Amino acid sequence: MPQPAPDDVPVTGTPFPPDLHDARHLWLKAGLLLAWAMVSFGACYFARDLQQMVAGWPLGYWIAAQGAILVFIAVTVVYCVAMDRFERKDAAADSAHPSRHG
Length: 102
What we know:
By secondary structure, the chain is mainly α. 65% of the residues lie in helices and 4% in strands. It has 2 helices and 2 strands. Helix 1 (18-45) packs antiparallel against helix 2.
């Protein structure tokens, strides 16, 4: 039995339409990067106002040294959760409409 050419194989393995995924993905990424940039650079802008002592260290130093890193970790977690939710939602919608597989 001859093997079908790659052009004859229907594309059924894509989890969601690329146009919808790209728009949601880009808005999510832009929002999270904006939040991270605001925390990272906002701490520098307000550093003189944040010179209160917390546990023996100036608050401005702590935010610049640790806070931006913690926010980056939170951004990564939020991104993973949101993308998982997007993929689950798209998979559920795709299984509800099997005719989309063409």
